[in-house]
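Field reference: sequence -> structure
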Amino acid sequence: MVIKPLREVEPLERGRIVKVGGRKGIRRRLLDMGVVVGAEVEVQRVAPLGDPLEIRIKGYNLALRLEEADNIQIEIFEGKL
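Structure field:
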């Protein structure tokens, strides 16, 4: 089992959220957008300069800043799509 911050996940890697942290405001915003423990997530693409990154979660795409992605811990599934 490999767990790492969302910002370190490569495009097309998939995993399950195991922890959502951060300051109260950031954490609440992430939870409101559906970034919750147990949700499956796939990194779709990363901007050329690394910020933001686009993920697919619960059937929709979501762009996150690296500051936000640092607060999300992912358990990586084996292999890429």
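Note: The chain has a mean pLDDT of 90.
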